[in-house]
């Protein structure tokens, strides 16, 4: 049975570091903020400016950390299609 992770806004902390990141397929809602620590903490820790859109679902999709960004209203249909595939 496949493991689908659905990331909503916000998804931070241990959830991201543990079971959210290990799904066979990782879906996220548009604009969802996803990460281990918040942007301010990361910026202060690294002493650097973060890129535009950092930690958004769309940014993570571009980096290959999320498989699809999909509206919540379309999740049922998308999950059905994924279950047929697996």
UniProtKB/TrEMBL annotation:
GO CC terms of this entry: acetyl-CoA carboxylase complex
Example of a GO biological process term: fatty acid biosynthetic process
Keyword Repressor listed: no
Keyword Ligase: yes
Ranges of residues in domain CoA carboxyltransferase N-terminal: 1-86
InterPro entries: Acetyl_CoA_COase_Trfase_b_su (IPR000438), ClpP/crotonase-like_dom_sf (IPR029045), COA_CT_N (IPR011762)
SUPFAM superfamilies for this protein: ClpP/crotonase (SSF52096)
EC number: 6.4.1.2
Keyword terms of this UniProt record: Ligase, Transferase
Gene Ontology molecular functions: acetyl-CoA carboxylase activity; transferase activity
Protein's name in the database: Acetyl-coenzyme A carboxylase carboxyl transferase subunit beta
Native source organism of the sequence: bioreactor metagenome
Lineage: unclassified sequences, metagenomes, ecological metagenomes
């Amino acid at each position: 049975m496949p493991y689908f992770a659905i990331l909503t806004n916000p998804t931070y902390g241990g959830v991201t570091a543990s079971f959210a990141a290990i799904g066979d397929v990782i879906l996220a809602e548009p604009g969802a903020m996803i990460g281990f620590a918040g942007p301010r903490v990361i910026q202060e820790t690294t002493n650097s400016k973060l890129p535009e859109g950092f930690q958004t679902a769309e940014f993570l999709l571009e980096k290959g950390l999320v498989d699809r960004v999909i509206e919540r209203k379309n999740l049922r249909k998308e999950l059905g299609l994924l279950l047929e595939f697996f």
